[in-house]
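Hi R.,

Here's the chain you asked about this morning:
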Amino acid sequence: MKIVYAVVIALLLTGCSGVSNKTLDYHDAQSQPGYGFIQFDFSKAKPLLNVTADQIDYTVHYADEGRSLFVDVKGATFKNRVLKAYIPLYKGYRFRSVSPYLLQVACKTCHTSPVNIWPTVYAVSEVGGTWCKETEYLNRVTFDWTNGCKGDWRDKGGIEGSKQLLGRLLITPRFHPQYLDSFTNRAPSGHQSAGS
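And here is the predicted structure, written out as tokens:
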């Protein structure tokens, strides 16, 4: 539910000053100077109902002192269900998070199907930490996006329940060493919405 609120807030903030939007072709995102990339490996995840081609789009969120920049990257390669989300540098901004566009998976035991997911990876330094220490990951270390903290929403239905819904979504940050070295799939409360 928090992800839905983050999306709504992001949409509302697009009209506010201090929030900018930009669209970029995947080839341009790859070729520009950048932080590196974050790999989203869906090969062990359930089928994505709204992704039918070997391409996928993603959004990079940058922030700096009350300003936000959202860069929509179009036409990223999704061969073998693997996305390498390249993160270009933007002067005056720092990388905050990246996520593929809203994705859908089928769920036979849910009230509604399909279920929308928005898998996001955050820079720990830009969101003020993590919900719990076990969801902080170093650069070049692969982790499962469905992992959670004891007591968070994933634990209420069971972390295993989350894995049953999505399967395994393996994340591998591959940033250049001079940039970030710590990432999370669980930003602390109050830091998941746009512009926070």
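One quick note: The two ends are 17 Å apart (CA to CA).

Cheers,
M.
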